[in-house]
Amino acid sequence: MELLGYVLSGLVTGAIFALLAAGLTLSYSATGVFNFAHGALGFLSALLFFELTSGAGLPAWPAGAVTVLVVAPLLGYALHRLMFRGLAAAGETAQIVATIGLTIALPAFGLWVVDVLTGTFGLDLPKVTEGASARGLGPRPVRAWHPLDGVTLDSDQLTTFALAVVAAVALWALLRHTPLGLRMRATVDGRDLAGLRGVDAGAASAQAWMLSSVLAALAGVLAVPALGLDSNAFTVLLFASATAAVFGRLRSVPVTFAAGLALGVVQNLVAGYAGFAEKVTGFRTAVPAILLFAGLLALNIGRGRAAGTIAEDVPPPDYLADLPRWRRALPWTAAVAALLVWTFTRAPDDYWAGLVAQGLVLALVFCSFVVVTGVGGMVNLAQASFAALAALAAGLAFGKGLPFPLAVLVGVLAAVAAGVVVALPALRLGGRVLALATLALALLADQVLFQIDAFSNGTVGWRLPAFSLGVGTTGDARLRIVLLLVIIGLTGLLIRNLERSASGRAVLAVRSAPAAAQAIGVSATRAKITLFALASGIAGLGGVLYATFNGQVTSTDLPALTGFVWLAVVVLQGVRRVGGAVLGGLIMVLFPEALGTVTDSPYVGTILFGLGGVVLARHPDGVLAQFAELRYRRRKRRDRLAEVAGLAEPAAAPPSEGPAMLRLEGVVAGYGDATVLRGVDLEVPAGSVVALLGANGAGKSTACAVAGGAVAPAAGRVLLDGADVTALPPHRRAREGLYLAPEGRGVFPALTVEENLTLWLPAAADREDVYRRLPRLGERRAVAAGALSGGEQQILALAPALVRPPKVLIADEPSLGLAPLVVAQVFELFGELRDRGVALLVVEEKAGEVLALADTVAFMSLGRVTWAGARAAVDEDRLTSAYLGLAGREEA
Amino acid sequence: MTSTTHRVLTFGAAAGLLAAGLGACATDGTSSAAGAAGVTKDAIKVGGVLTVTSATGYSTGGSELGAKARFDRANAEGGVHGRKIDYVGTEDDGMLPDKGAAGAKKLVQRDKVFALVPVSAPQFGGAEFLEQQKVPWFGWATGPFWCGKTSAFGFNGCLAPKPGQQTQTWWGNQVAAQIGGAKGKTVWIQATDSTASKYGVATMGKSFTAAGFTLAGSSAALPAQAPPQDWSPYVNKIMKSAGGKAPDVLVSVMAGGKFNSGLYAALKEAGFKGLITDATSYDPKAVADPQAARALDGVYAAPQFEPYESDVPEVAKMKADLRKAGGPSAVLDQHAAIGYWSADVFLKILEKTGEDVTRDAFFKAANGFDYQNKGFGQIAYPAGKTASNGCGALVRLSGGEFVVAQHLKCFPNTTL
Questions:
Q1: Looking at residues A116-132, what average pLDDT do you find?
Q2: Residues in domain Leucine-binding protein (chain B) (predicted)?
Q3: Can you name the CATH fold of B43-156+311-385?
């Protein structure tokens, strides 16, 4: 009976985990951003709900509806516009850090607004103090039932469970059975392709964020009667829920939901039965963290993704590379010299010198982020725990009578050992999965390791006295500054050498192309371990000095959440350089000081630190790199303008004869500083096939991308049926009748055949037409497109165009990798489409069959159309010279 | 040579040169710790560190009003030996140790205060700094960092003694008085799953067994970071702890309204009829919400001062002072009283110090200081550095009103 009671009430706890986890999974799978701030969204909604009910006196249900159905979607939309939209394209590090910044900023923002409303505008709203208990959606007073002996259920629990189940079913139905859900899933499966099929990927992301925000809000409102308005409790709740999301592999909403329910039950059973656990302080608290860690290792989510991705975290170009060495070093040398001169004008116990020293200690800890994140491209959320671990270990050693230098060594070594332990999962995991794993370890350290009395000396902690440096003790702030500058300098040197060493290059190789690195035999294992060990050592030394300058260390001095703020600050300044770390450390201590002259609110600083995440979404490489880039752009702009102007000019006379359905005029385009298309003119008339031929690298696919809208040209125009569409995004061009089948297979592998067709053919009758024409697809309509053969996929990619012919069809290498028989079938389809008036642009590397089909042939070479004319005029000589790049402009 | 190497060497060399210079001037760099910082001919500057805001919503912010009210009275009476108290207000530590340390440094090094009054922060991080700088600090001693320090003065003594030192028995004795004797009565102690809370289990167990109770059991199983959504596993355990029956008394050493009101509501639902007591529920804000008021109804809160509801003249004076300083809407919570009495103890020692105020003189005066007051009982130093002052009261919440159940009384300590 007792067991049944635990299971039933565990399901209620689980329902809240499940709701949060479902929202997390939804937003992750729809946008690729793992939202650490999901719990903070829940808190903000709970706060609003509390103020609406307790403050404004609204009844619970209308207040709930306003919070969950009106404000939450608006908040989701606002965050999408401000932040998530930019993040989708940013590297993983920036994504993680930005949402962590939001985790910090959102609750502070809510509390600040309440403060301002009560303080400045005099509204009579309740403040969030401990006693102010918030109610939930359930009725008041709470009613309780005892359906069975030993089983108690109350009206709050039943309300929570019922609403969670309703929300889950609604979510499932929405994703599976509505056009909105289909568009979201298509965006998840292939963002670019979705655009080409007329799906506005941005809008789909916005909708996903709004939906996920609704789920967070609902969970927040349901959880608040039990949790209270405690923003940390919500963050912890989110981590627990992340466990469920991980068990759903961050993909499947139903599995996630079930895992959330199960987690609630497991937690209850451990609380009820695991008597042994009581001996280990913190064990019960840590159950979700333990499961999270175990789940990450066991399910090994990272592996599948790593194979398909290339350089998610591309290092930014070195914008200062063209400056002389002395010019690069000048600002830093001058700053250090100025700092030293200033330092010696101060008294030994000067407040400001003390602050600067404190900032430099943090800067030293931040250098560890430079190693592990800046160089290694990995996000470690346990850095504060490493620092605390080292400080506690040093304190323990010193407390047991070891001499101070040895104690420091013990501390640093303890951190290094911990770093190696963390590196072990890092070998298999990557990106956000690694971040989650380090988070789980950090929580475990806080909740279990640091709770061991023998290690942390209870709540008293350990004393660490100032030490002597010959000329004085570290009680003197000036001496601390000098000492820290020397240590940071040496650390910078170490990092520089590391980057240039064999391990450094190995890491860089692994980071930008894991598969390629493996192919040439570069081992990431040793490199990753080296990085983690070194970073932990630096963080450990920083931690020991932090504690020493503070005089003491206790287990609560550096909680895991502090590490979040640190990471946000240092990444915002630029995590790839020691300069960013130093700036970050100084800002961390001096900024609140400056802010104190403007406002008394403790929230404003937190909001601003957190909002750095929004900046990061726009400029993922941090403030320092941003300045460097600005200066670089200014230096380079003139050269670039000249180049574009020079290229665009000679292409002034397009061979115009009659109206073309698709026309490229003088298109200049490329990627970053590399120009690929150097003035392309091309036209495709209705009811004809243009074959675009050229060697590998001639710019054919880029030309397709410009036509489709994926790449914006630097100069020139794209005309569709006479209208200038240069400024239109891909989905708008698709809706205007441009159908692009990209290189490879233009299908959504995770969607069924039926769903693939639905995106272009919303009417069921149209899809039936396809199945009549292509019975093979009809047989397999419920099969995921990824399970079809290559030929079937290519047919599926082109099939919608048969039923609803577009104005223009562009096929990029349609015959690549297909059997001759299938190629013949594909080209037959093209012939039919031409006869129905479609303008076709068929891009091929090999002339082959396409010559038999084409009306007009264009050759591309080195980013230009070198020859275009009727197929009849193409002979073997022309082909040869075209491929060999001999066909010059004079010939055309 | 790379630019970084170059840079490092440049400032390495600069640092070396300057370090040599430092050696010359470090010798004459005198520490101001023993001087008369913050003391002028006619004023003494003080400021405090409080947990005004925190992620959990816990706040000791009310102590600022209490200290201000007491200092206002002192200034109105002409100050201490002609010097007015210049109270610069408080720093908020947000319940983060590093912010607390920064706040203490700011007050000492930038604002140049003479002492820190009041300090009331469960996770104060500035203790060791203040001890190194020999700056006196006064407040509500809750954590072990208050204990055994020259510079730290808890108005209530030290609540977290080491094994072998003296710990309080007043709580157990007061509860025993409330239920007509402890003989044959059982008590359950509930804590959260953290070191600090487990420590509370030990001292509280001692307090109640010393008063004659039998320990039915204790638990520190509640997840420390957030209250559970479901209380049934914990409540079931309590309801069967005294030989299959519910215990007579439940003591909660958990901080946080949600923990306590959640547990009490669940206990009552399960049919618990015993006495419930805790240290934090004496809070007008805690009972503002009807649901929480229902959960807390009948609970005995245990403040370490004579309750506001008492008619003792010292309390009437305090209430008048608080209303004068904070206006008619002043919130009279336990933190206001704590701030008030902390400031009171500071002023008394300052008075004893005499006209020549330095920190050294102050510490000398504090040594052997013995003071009694009906408002909070008694305090003597250095005894109060390692042991509780031994005094406490019980307040019962009944129908949304607080009622004095046991007036403040002091009891002898017992060895932990």
A1: 74
A2: 44-400
A3: Rossmann fold (3.40.50)
